[in-house]
Amino acid sequence: MASAAPSRVLNLAVIGVGLVGSELLRQLAQPSLASKFRLVFVSNSKQSVSSLTPQGNLNFSNWKQSLESSTAPPALEDLPTILGGFVGGDAVKNPLAVVDNTSSESVALLYPKFLRAGINVVTPNKKAFSSELSLYDDIVSSSASTGAKFLHEATVGAGLPIVQTLKDLVETGDQVKRIEGVFSGTLSYIFNEFSSPKGGSEFFSTVVRIAKEKGYTEPHPGDDLNGADVARKLTILSRIIPSLRNSLQSGYKSVSITSLVPEALRGPEVTGADFLQHLPDFDSHFHLLKEEAEKEGAVLRYVGVIDVPKGEIKAALEKYPKDHAFATSLGGSDNIIAFHTERYSPRPLIVQGAGAGAAVTAMGVLSDLLKLI
């Protein structure tokens, strides 16, 4: 009787071991998964450690200690060449994936080089897929030239199956008409608390301050309230839809964005502390918006919308009836995304759940890695 073929082992080069990167390595260390992967490189912003050399000894149990004791710099600009040498033109015999857990634009710019070297790229980093179209085109063509894949489920909704769901809809021939949803966990929490179907008495600035205290916001809350993160996610999704693929030449900057940051607080000199100190000056503005919504039997939600027939892509504060799913179904910092398609009509396909956090983001990255085995 013929013996079973040996299972495929995927080599991993992990860039970034902060909250998400460390959690990913913890999940990979599970006995049911560890045998499927081999760790060959790990780096943080200052150091790196590799098992590509004969004396290298790196695994899921010793990576942290090995990294802390290393004197080698990351030297990421050399990594495509080094890892390409490891693959040696045989990605079947030496399959390798770079996992970028950073939010670095400089690392994102290396993706085409990795892909041209036959190295797969898996990442929660939104930068490469939501910036200028020229970079995205380079990534796509580089992938096609070698067959190396780029997977980025965790760029939208962390571990929620949003990117893959949209890909499946498109690839099976469904016609996507509209995508709308609450894409920001931070803004979800803020408006769930500030504009509830049951009403609410908290000032907008108070809700934002509490959100920061709970760890839901960026160090500077304005980085959440300016809508740019939602716009990046809309860019990523729109580029999967054939008719919209080339519509955002400047990436997220081409999206119509309604910023919730008051004009007086938008300057680069405004620190996070300054922002929280002066935001109460604008509570009357936000109270008026909420009051207008309540008069219409509605709540406020900050949403992202992709209207395919109109070619409209926007991140904006909108009103929804108090019995709408966006008003009643959300709790905490949940994301909810509705796909309106030819097949899923009149009732949309809805994906909902935690859209932020290290554990679910790492799970999204891990699910992509498993697709490569």
Keywords:
373 residues; alpha/beta; six-stranded mixed sheet; 17 helices; globular; disordered N terminus
Question: What is the residue-averaged pLDDT?
Answer: 94
Number of helices: 17
**End-to-end C-alpha gap:** 25 Å
Q: Strand order, biggest sheet? A: 3-2-1-4-5-6
What radius of gyration results from the CA coordinates?
22 Å
Structural class: alpha/beta
Shape: globular
Bin the strand percentage. 15-25%
User: Helicity level, as a percent range?
Assistant: 25-40%
The low-confidence parts are: 1-6
Largest sheet: 6 strands, mixed
Provide the succession of SSEs.
EHHEEHHEHHEHHEHEHHHHEHHEEHEEH
Task: Give the oligomer, counting copies of the same chain as homo and different chains as hetero.
Answer: single chain
* Total number of strands: 12
Short note summarizing the structure:
Helix content is 37%, strand content 18%. It is of the alpha/beta class and 373 residues long.
Can you walk through the features of this model?
With 373 residues, this protein is α/β, with parallel strands linked by helices. 37% of the residues lie in helices and 18% in strands. It has 17 helices and twelve strands. It has helices at residues 19-28, 31-34, 63-68, 79-87, 105-108, 111-116, 127-130, 133-146, 163-171, 185-194, 204-213, 222-225, 228-238, 272-278, 283-295, 325-328, 358-371, and strands at residues 10-15, 37-43, 48-50, 96-100, 120-122, 150-151, 176-182, 256-257, 298-307, 312-321, 334-341, 349-354. The strands form two sheets. It has a six-stranded mixed beta sheet with strand order 3-2-1-4-5-6. A six-stranded mixed beta sheet has the order 8-10-9-7-11-12. The longest helix has 14 residues, at 133-146. The chain is globular. The two termini are 25 Å apart. Mean pLDDT is 94; it is low at 1-6.
